[in-house]
Design goal:
Oligomer: single chain
Distance between the termini: 54 Å
Largest sheet: 4 strands, antiparallel
Helix content: 40-55%
CATH class of the largest domain: Alpha Beta
Shape: elongated
Structural class: alpha+beta
CATH topology of the largest domain: Beta-lactamase Inhibitory Protein, Chain:B, domain 1
């Protein structure tokens, strides 16, 4: 059970009751202003992430390897969208748990992510074989 859904509003109500008991209407006004500011900050961050993601192709990331290195279990889809600056390509049926998304980079590597109840549960990086598609021969790394 996700207790944050209930604890944050309960904490806000507790602050309002405390403000009322200590300072009356003036305390309620100050705490209400702080709560509204908190909500506006989160709304502004969400809109900034979505604005950046709207200007990129769906499911594209600059480097799938770097995305894989930055991921941690339990992060939200919004956090991953902020990292990639794009929306993920939905790979599971809509509105079905777990949700699976894919981000692909220009080199053909991709990261598949699985979210359960909005939190990242697991992910996997897939890199293509280093084969030259035109010649069918393995690509040799440059000599250094």
């Amino acid at each position: 059970m996700n207790f944050r859904k209930y604890l944050v509003p309960a904490f806000g109500l507790l602050l309002l009751v405390f403000a009322w008991n200590q300072y009356g209407w003036q305390g309620v006004a100050v705490v209400s202003g702080a709560i509204v500011m908190f909500l506006l900050l989160h709304f502004n961050r969400t809109m900034a992430v979505l604005r950046r993601a709207a200007n990129r192709p769906i499911g594209y990331v600059d480097s799938a390897v770097m995305l894989n290195a930055k991921l941690k279990p339990g992060v939200t889809l919004m956090h991953v969208m902020a990292l990639t600056r794009s929306l993920g390509e939905l790979r599971s049926p809509k509105d079905e748990q777990p949700e699976r998304y894919r981000w692909t980079d220009g080199g053909g590597s991709w990261v598949d992510l699985e979210f359960m109840d909005g939190k990242l549960r697991q992910w996997s990086l897939t890199r293509p074989d280093a084969v030259d598609a035109a010649a069918g021969q393995p690509v040799q790394p440059p000599a250094s």
